[in-house]
Structures are given as structure tokens and as C-alpha cells.
Amino acid sequence: MTCTFKYKNKKGEVVVAEVTATTAGLSLLDEAESVGLVPAYGCRAGSCGACRVTVNEGLELLGPRGIVEEDTWLRCQDPPEVRLACRAELLPNAHGTVAFERAPDVTVEFDDER
Ligand code: FES
Questions:
Q1: Whose CA is nearest to atom 3 of ligand 1?
Q2: What residues form DSSP beta bridges with 14?
Q3: How far is the CA of 49 from the centre of ligand 1 (A)?
Q4: What is the C-alpha separation between 28 and 33, in angstroms, rounded?
Q5: What is 2-102's CATH topology?
Q6: Is 51's C-beta closer than 6 angstroms to any atom of ligand 1?
Q7: What is the pLDDT along the chain (114 residues), one digit of tens a residue?
Q8: Is the CB of 53 under 6 A from ligand 1?
Q9: What is the DSSP code string of 44-55?
Q10: 3 pairs with which residues across the strands?
């Protein structure tokens, strides 16, 4: 598994990081943090919506929504390309680029300048 993360932070800067290995069960948020990216988050449990990201590229490299993510996605009335970074997981054999940024209406303040 080799993926390139392209994370657009709140300043509009695109930060690139390589993910060369993954551990089953790690979320997109966990994976991003492991390579030095700092996406916004809140509960880390799938309920607050603070970690909602728009996936601009590589949506097919993520597994399907689980029940918790599906419930929050429906409640927030998000488009299909919005995922919860704390719940979405890379597919085991993912290979490619995942480009993402915080969803437009996420207003949580967090130091995501990296
Ligand atoms: S951090 Fe709360 S839903 Fe992801």
C-alpha cells in the first residue's frame, strides 16, 4: 500500500505526505496524523462532524461508510464526496492519491497549518 496524501489546510496550502504502510483499523485522520498532517477533529468517534473532509481525489481508495459515519453523513446532509476523517479507512491495498480538505462548513478552530 502506498498512498500520497494531499491535504489542503485552512490557509489554502496543499501539504503532501507519503503513506507507505497502514495498520488495519486506522482512520484517515490517524493515517494523516502519522505522516505529520493535522486535520481538524473533535470527538474522534464519528458523532460531532468536526473532522468532515471533502475528498477531491481518491474517494475510491476509501472503504464504505460504516453505520456511525452513515448516520452523521445523513444528519449533515453532505454530498457523497464528504467523509468523516475519524471513521473513513483506506482500503487494504490502496494505491494512489487521496486529496482532501476540510468540508466548507466545518468551523472548528484547530491548528492545521501543517
Ligand atoms: S471527530 Fe467528531 S465526527 Fe470525526
A1: 46
A2: 8
A3: 5
A4: 9
A5: Ubiquitin-like (UB roll) (3.10.20)
A6: yes
A7: 789 999 998 889 999 999 987 777 799 999 999 999 999 999 999 999 999 999 999 999 999 999 999 999 999 999 999 999 999 999 988 999 999 999 987 766 655 544
A8: no
A9: SSSSS-TTEEEE
A10: 19, 96
